[in-house]
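In response to reviewer comment 3 from the previous cycle, which asked for concrete evidence that the modeling workflow produces usable outputs, we include below a single protein chain processed end to end. The sequence was submitted unchanged, and the resulting C-alpha cells are shown without manual editing.
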Amino acid sequence: MAMRFPTLTRLALILGTALGLGLAGCDDKTQSRDTLVIGMTQYPATLNPNIESMLAKTYVLAMTRRPFTHHDPGWQLICALCETLPTLENGLAVPESLPNGKKGIAVTYTIKQGAKWGDGTPVTTKDVEFTYEVGKHPASGVADGELYRRILKIDVKDARTFTLHLDRLTFDYNSINTFQVLPAHIERANFKDPKEYRQRTAYDTDTTNPGLYFGPYRITKKETGSRIILEPNPTWWGKKPYFKKIVVQIIEKTAALEANLLSGSIGYIAGELGLLVDQGLAFEKRHGKNFDIEFKPSLVYEHIDLNLENPFLKDRRVRRALILALDRDELSKKLFEGRQPVADSFVHPLDWVHSKDTPRYAFDPKKAADLLDAAGWAKRDGEGFRVNGDGKRLTFELMTTAGSRTRELVQQILQSQWRKAGIDIRIRNEPARVYFGETVTKRKFKAMAMFAWLSAPESVPRLTLHSDQITTAANNWSGQNYTSYKNPEVDKLLDAIEVELDRDKRARLWARLQKIYAEDLPVLPLYFRADPFIIPKWLKGIKPTGHQDPTTLWVEHWHAATP
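The workflow returned the following C-alpha cells.
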C-alpha cells in the first residue's frame, strides 16, 4: 500500500563554508569532498518513520533505514529490507480462503541477512511483531493505520522470516512500503501508553541513539528547525557510503537556497525539497554550465485541499465556480514555461491509470458567475465582493507553507483571479512544521490548504479520499482525508480497485473514480510538478525517481567525481 507524502515548504542560520564543499560553480580539486551539505526547505515535524507522512522526514530517514519494499527509479517494486520480493509466481505469496468466505493472501518476507540496528542489535521478527502491535493500536496515531488493520495476523518462522496474513487479495499484495520497522528493544518502553507514543517516541526524544537506525548513515546530531547531521553507520550491511558526514541544512526561503549554493555554504539542494521549476529555469539560464540540471516530471500533485465542513464550501456549485474562475493554463505558461501540466485530477498523465475522459475545467468566468449566482451569491457589496442573502461576504482563507517564493506567488495570482469573480481571498501562511504537523493534519485550516501530494505509481488514494480515513481526535489524527470528504460510491470504488487483479477492469474503475473526483471537487487540482535537480558536476550518483521514494534511498552510491 502506497502512502501519499505532502511536500511542504524554515529559515535557519546557514552553515559556514567550513562545512560546505567550496563554491558550487568552481572546480577546486584541492577542496575536501568528505562532507556533503544538503540544503532543504523544511524540517521534519517528527522523525518517527510511522507517524505522519512529511516528505522532509522521508528524505532524511531514507539515509538511515530501508523499507521492506519500495519503488526504484524505473518505477518497479523491489525489495530493500527483504531478501526476495514475494510473488504468486515464486510461491512466497499464496491466496487463502478466509472464514468469512472472502479471499485473503499470505505473503512471506525474509529480513535481509546481516541487517543490524546501529547499536549492533540484529533486526529481527521481534521488531516486526512490535511494529505490528504499534500500527494495529487505534491510539498510536500512525499515518497508515489501514495497512495494519488489514493484517489479520503474523506467523513468525524464525528470527528473520515471517508471513503476513492479509484480509484481502489486492493487485499490490506484496507492497508493504509503509510497514516501517521499529526497534522493539528501544521503543517498547515508550509505547506503554499508546496515546502518548507520539510525544514519547525515541526518534524525537533521543534522536541520536544509534539503535534507531540501520541504514548507511545514522543521525548523530540535530538542531530542531535548523539542521540534522548524519555520519556513517558502522553496522550497515551494504555498500560503504562515500561521505564521512552529511549535513541537512534547513533554509526555508527558496531564494536563500540558491544564494547558499552559489556561495558554497551548501554543496547541493535537495531536488525533492528545494527550488521549484520557475526558479530552476531561471537558475539554468544563469548558471547552467556549472551544473547538471534535470527537470524531472513527477507524481507531485499541487492542489488545494478544501475544508468541506466550511458552510460555503459544502455547496458543490461554489467549488466548481472556484476552479472555473481560475486560468490555470495561463498560470502554468507564465510561471513555469508550460513544464508543469495543469491537473484534471490526482492522477498524472504519466501514470498508466490516467483517464483521458476525466472532466476538465477550462477557464470560464461566465459559467463561474452563473454558478455563484445560482448558489445565492448574486449580490455585490461596496467593494465588489459577492455576498449572500444574509449579507455575508464570500470569503475564504488560503494557506500554504511560509517561505516558498513560488507558492506565495501562486497564491497572489489565485487571489487576483478570484477577486475578478467577486471572491475575497485572505492569505495566511505558516512554517512547514506547524502547517503540516498541526494545521493540516488536525484539519485546523478554515477553508483552503495548498500543498502537494507525492505518491507512488498507481497509488490508490484510499488514505486521502475514503470516508474512514478522515482525521479526528478520536483516531489520534490517523489517516490523510483532511477535507472530510464522504462519498459512498467513491468508498466502494476504492475498495473495488484494490482487489481487482484484471488490469482492463481496474482501468475502468480508475476512470470512474477520476470522473467523480473531478465532478465533486473535494480538492481544487492545480498542476503536476516537475522538480529541478540542480546537481554540481562534481557530485555523482543521484538518480531522480519522479515518485514518493526519494533519491536518498540510494545515498550510498553518491560520491564526488575523481579529480
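The longest helix spans residues 503-520. We consider this sufficient to address the reviewer's concern, and the full set will be provided in the supplementary archive.
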